[in-house]
Amino acid sequence: MEVVVQIVFGLIALLILVAATMVVTVRNVIHSALWLITCFFGVGALYLLLEAEFLAVVQVLVYVGAVSVLILFAIMLTRQISGEGERQLNSRWPVVLAIAALLFATVMAPTLINQQWNVPPAPPLGTPEPLAGPAELGRGFVNEFLIQFQVVGVLLTVALIGAIVIAFEERARRRKVLTLAEELELKRLRARETEATTPEPVEAEPVVRETRPASER
Amino acid sequence: MLNAVPLPAVLTLAAALFCIGLFGALSRRNLIGVLMGVELMLNAVNINLIAFWRYFEPRYITGQTFAIFIIAVAAAEAAVGLAMVIAVYRHYVSVNADEVDRLRG
Fold first, then answer.
1. What is d(CA A74, CA A166) in angstroms, rounded to the nearest whole number?
2. What is the CATH number of domain B7-92?
3. What percent of chain B has a predicted confidence (pLDDT) above 70?
4. Residues A29 and A43 in one domain
5. What is the dihedral of CA A144, A148, A153, A159, to 10 degrees?
6. Does A34 touch chain B (CB under 8 A)?
7. Is residue A12 domain-shared with residue A41, that is, in the same domain?
8. Which residues in chain A have their CB less than 8 angstroms from residue B27's CB?
9. Using the beta-carbon criterion (under 8 Å), do A166 and B87 form an inter-chain contact?
10. ipTM field
11. Same-domain status, A179 and A164
């Protein structure tokens, strides 16, 4: 029984780490978002293994259902044709990799492994353990965590309004949406311009908005 | 679970996930990639909270409540962050974090 749990934990850990690594290294942003969904599923499975069933459901609902769809929408709204196949990591990535790896290898892992945790002993097999479930959670939300609960509600409302205000675009300022042919023509024009006047930064071009996720392929 | 997998294993997994997310948040050029790194880090924190809840005080709800609040705040952060990415894209016609440097001295 214990071996089974260990194997399941190992598989879930492998899934999470591989998916997370793919999220930060893959070139295509859409693939990156799909790996992120995989990672969220792995974390949800880990919650199930840790017997936090309600959290697992919330994880799937909020992260897999809402956040990843939001990210995919943002990618579709901001993808440029020219951005395809570009390098995805900036020039400082070796330094950042060194920092993150050192942080893990020299600070986090030794601390976590050498610490005496004094975990209270688990009850012997067969006796049911008193576990806080959704019922206790619900009772907590209307008793001791009532104020925090309401504050989170206000926060979500504020975030909703703020997101709309930030992303809102007035109709008068909305730019013309070009067709694919016009866009390609514009790109060719721009490329010729940059060829002619090489190092000069091109930004005189009127800004163009591309909202065409489907016809891009 | 408690007898089979020791607590440090779960915590180390969360630490590794956090470091991967940190790497992604600091080294991605795409603003959306940066936000994805932040989401990974928040997930790592949640794993920590749930692990501590499960191993130390499974009969109280504090750990789970904390994790749920973090999920709610992360959802709000993702909504506002992605709205800002869209606004930045509209202004600069780019989602490259290095090109958004108007405040650079």
1. 13
2. 1.10.287.3510
3. 99
4. yes
5. -170
6. no
7. yes
8. 24, 89-90, 92-93, 96-97
9. yes
10. 0.93
11. no
